[in-house]
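When time allows, look over one protein, given below as sequence and tokens. The question is which stretches look regular and which look disordered:
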Amino acid sequence: MSDKELWDALWARGEHLEWDPLSQEIYDTLMREWGGVTGKRVLEAGAGSGRISLRLAAAGAAVVLVDFSVEALFLARKNFQCRNLEAEYLLADITELPLPDHYVDFAWNAGVLEHLDYRGQVQALKEMKRVTRPGGLVVSFNPNARCLPYRVGKWAAECTGMWPYGAENPVVSLAPVCQEAGLTLKKEYTIGLLAGLAFLDYVPNGRVVRAAAEAFLGQLPVEERGLFPGYLLVSVMSSEG
């Protein structure tokens, strides 16, 4: 099965529409880094179901959704139409965006670059930079290579043939990719500490460990919880590179 067939099949199931705590963390991160989106044009490069961009549109953004999966865009369009919200929908590969230079104020994606090889990551970020106005921020969320529960769960799922997301390479840092793409990496940090624990469900009896870990983290002060790396690495980049 090709990558495109895999993702068409996944999106055809109509999954990943629910608004969960990780979705909220991603949304909050974007709003904090961008300082709001009212009146701004925002690109999601690799949009999937578009559930977070839907919230951005509701907050006043003009949303551009790009994905190479017909099923993903069908799902996103249906999702937006059900809520009487508009977006631009483009069926395309994010390494060749069919958009003019400086078309958007901000660009972002989540759970996309880890499915590309190094050259693909560089080209995707080059394109995201090209279509973003000078000084606009590009934000990418990718699985954190230092998140142990995610790594263990992913490994267990791959060993048993249960991993549903195809080839996925966790990210230590996007610094070398940014440099080659001509972007300035402003900061990196992690989010989604509890979301990383969900991958333990792939491990036999892992839900017991997950419950214990959640209870342990729940009783820690916020500052101490911050010592542990989260599931997603957040890379904040400037198009002025």
